[in-house]
Amino acid sequence: MYGVKDIIKKSFVEGYSAVDITTKTVVIALLITAVLSLYIFFLYRAITRKTFYSKNFNISLVGVALITAAIIITIQSSIVVSLGMVGALSIVRFRTAVKDPLDLMFLFWAISTGIICGAGFAEFAVLLTIIMTIMVFVLNHIPLAKAPMILIVNAVNDLKEEEIMEVVKKRTAYSGVKSRNLTPTSLDLTIELRTKEDADLIRDIQAIEGVQSVALLKHDGETGF
Predict the structure, then answer these.
(1) Number of domains in the chain
(2) Residue 96: is its pLDDT beyond 70?
């Protein structure tokens, strides 16, 4: 005669110990995941603006999606296996920091694709891919304010700063001194500015008597607004 505890235990184990997952189901889920993850691979390569493109990271997006799909399929097959896998995965630690938010988005997208396809909702994964593609391209082409440039001027003494700033204000829409380094014999100025007359600005400053060197640096950093 079974007690209440035995009935609950027997019902739980027999009811959830296995789900009928055929080889065909597994193959289809993994193939769909592979196709979508390859699409993520090519999309990431197309829109990334990094100077040093990491092919290894891009390949890992495909691998992460497939591995995640395989894990989700395995978890569905048995509640016992799923509990054991959760325990095993809980000890995994990742040491590599993801510094670019765009990389983090693609990584989470790849993981989500694996989860959705592994759970058997491939149509949702396709819909997610379509919407994400549209949003990425739309947001990627929204024009932003032009990043400021950095002007570095070296002069013989601080008496030239007023003349330098007068030329800067004349040739720029915005300017601000970021650093000022003064020694008994020289002055080093670092100025953040926005201008469309960069060539004329350099020539005008270089023409000032006492200015030894002028450098104007451009960068691809993010703007503050």
Answers:
(1) 2
(2) no
Do residues 34 and 63 both lie within one domain?
Answer: yes
| Eight-state DSSP code of residue 141 | T
Can you tell me the distance from the alpha carbon of 74 to that of 78, in angstroms, rounded to the nearest whole number?
7
Is residue 223 in some structural domain? no
Task: Count Cβ atoms below 10 Å from residue 107 Cβ, excluding itself.
Answer: 18
Give all strands of the β-sheet with 174-182 in edge-to-edge order: 174-182, 187-194, 149-155, 211-217
**pLDDT tier, 155 (very low <50, low <70, confident <90, very high otherwise):** confident
Contacts 24+ apart (CB under 8 A), 181-184: 182/158
Q: Residues 30, 68: contact at Cβ < 8 Å?
A: no
> Contact, 131 vs 116, CB < 8 A?
no
The count of other CB atoms within 10 Å of the CB of residue 157 is 13
Residue 138 CA neighbour count, 13 Å, CB half: 6
Q: Rounded mean pLDDT of 42-58? A: 81
What residue numbers bound the domain in which 21 lies? Answer: 4-140
